[in-house]
């Protein structure tokens, strides 16, 4: 389950990071840079929440100790 949840977010974060860095040239409009930053930050935040939820589920199941 964790792989299925985390993998899409890693792709979103990775591609938005590429867009922010613009290794293939400019995006064409300054707003796109702002949007990619928002996508990147939101993806990281959501990935952190998913990780926390999965950790809590493992703790509750007795498979992870604090």
Polypeptide structure, described:
The protein has about 70 residues and is mostly helical. Helices cover about 75% and strands about 0% of the residues. The protein contains two helices and no strands. The protein is elongated and about 50 Å long. The mean pLDDT is about 90.
Which keywords apply here?
66 residues; mainly alpha; 0% strand
Task: Write a brief caption for the model.
By secondary structure, the protein is an all-alpha fold. It has two helices and no strands.
Question: What is the CA–CA distance across the termini?
Answer: 21 Å
Total count of strands: 0
Low-confidence stretches: none
Helix content: over 70%
**Shape descriptor:** elongated
Structural class: mainly alpha
Count of individual helical segments: 2
Beta-strand level of the residues, as a percent range? under 5%
Average pLDDT metric: 91
Secondary structure topology:
Elements: H1 2-21, H2 30-60
